[in-house]
Amino acid sequence: MRETTIEVGEHCFRMTRTEARQQTRILVQAAAQACEDKKGEETRILELDPIDAGLSDFFLITSATNDRQAIAIADEIEHRLKKEFGVFPNSVEGRRKGDWILLDYVDFVVHVFRSERRAFYDIERLRKSARPLTPAEFDAELKAALAARALAARKQASTMPRLTGGKTRPPLPRAQKAEKKQPTAGKAKNPRKAATKPATKKKALKV
After folding, report:
1. In angstroms, rounded to a whole number, what is the distance separating the alpha carbons of residues 148 and 142?
2. Structural domain spans, the chain
3. What is the pLDDT of residues 134-154, one digit of tens each?
4. DSSP string, 151-188
5. Residue 32: how many CB atoms within 10 A of its CB?
6. Dihedral sign, Cα of residue 80, residue 111, residue 26, residue 140
7. Where are the beta strands (DSSP E) in the chain?
């Protein structure tokens, strides 16, 4: 499976595409929670079709009743992802005007609309191939995926033989197993001990 390199703050991690997508889901869920905390309306997450998505996997869309609230929502998302995950947006557009603020995190894009602007552009209709989810539905899927991953990790750990002290030992190759199972024919004499053993004196025969 293809590996992906992601940057979190000053650190760089290599992970599979599945792991990277799961990490993106965690970030999207945190951003959606920030929208809810700042009273964003009709918050939706669009899981984009891989063919139609380009470089991004998700759109997070929410509405604000006025420019000030839209700016507050965008600021909260940016602050929370920076504080909790060390993640920064690749670019931010529309913050000064406030009627449509776009935060581009590459793997997902946040759209904070003023309500009338959202109705005018209607991104959900334009992305017909995307799968729309509420934050609650998205959270339930994320929790199920994390639980399945944890269960798979526990099963894998339980199949590994244990050494003393709780350390895990990898299974032996078949050749070594066969050699280990063969019974020993008897303890071989140590040639060094035989060489250093003093010779016993023969008793003189009585005539």
Report:
1. 10
2. 3-152
3. 999 999 998 998 888 788 878
4. HHHHHHHHTS-B-TTS-B-PPPPHHHHHHHHSPPSSPP
5. 26
6. positive
7. 3-8, 11-16, 41-47, 58-64, 91-93, 100-104, 108-114, 131-133
Query: What homologous superfamily does CATH list for 3-152?
Result: Beta Polymerase, domain 2 (3.30.460.10)
To the question of pTM greater than 0.70 for the whole model, the response is: no
Q: Which residue bears the tokens 């929790």?
A: 143
Q: Report helix, strand and coil shares of the chain as percent, to nearest 5.
A: 45, 20, 35
d(CA 152, CA 167): 19
β-pair partners for 62: 112
CA distances from 153 to 158, 159, 202, 205 (A): 9, 10, 70, 78
Angle of helix 135-158 relative to helix 17-37, nearest 10 degrees?
140
* Token pair in block for residue 113: 């609309």
